[in-house]
Each structure stands twice: as C-alpha cells, then as structure tokens.
Write a structure and sequence with these properties.
- By secondary structure, this protein is α+β, with helices and mostly antiparallel strands.
- It has one domain: Herpes Virus-1.
- The protein has 2 helices and 3 strands.
- It has helices at residues 33-39, 59-64; strands spanning 22-24, 30-32, 52-53.
- Strands 2-1-3 form a 3-stranded antiparallel beta sheet.
- 25% of the residues are buried.
Length: 75
Amino acid sequence: MLILHPNCQCCDKDLPADAKNAVFCSFECTFCQDCAIEVYQGVCPNCQGDFTSRPTRKGESLKKYPASTERIHQD
C-alpha cells in the first residue's frame, strides 16, 4: 500500500490524502507539483527518477487506511 506523506519534502506545503497537486517518484518521495517542476525540473533529487501524479485516497478507504502523519522535509 502506498504511504501518503502529508507534505511536500521541499517546501513543506500540506498535501492531504486527497490533494490533486501531489506528485511522487518510484521511491514514494512526495512533492507538490510546483516544487517538482520549478525546483527539480521533473527529476526526483533522491532517485533521479521522474514524477507522476500521486493517487488520492478518500472516504472509507482513507478511514480504513489513513495517510501517514510523518512529515519529511529536506533541509
């Protein structure tokens, strides 16, 4: 199951489980679309892979499988 991190690892913007502007890489590094494009030019700084839109999780699925509360932020 995907770990839905609650924030952008670059700017620390909140990215709830239903965020439409969240992207991630194959390692599940999570960023907002703005940072992924403007800061990293579409390439993950951790794995050098590309980004894709992160799926959303809502309703009963979110209640049964909540998003992570662990915030990851790169200094």
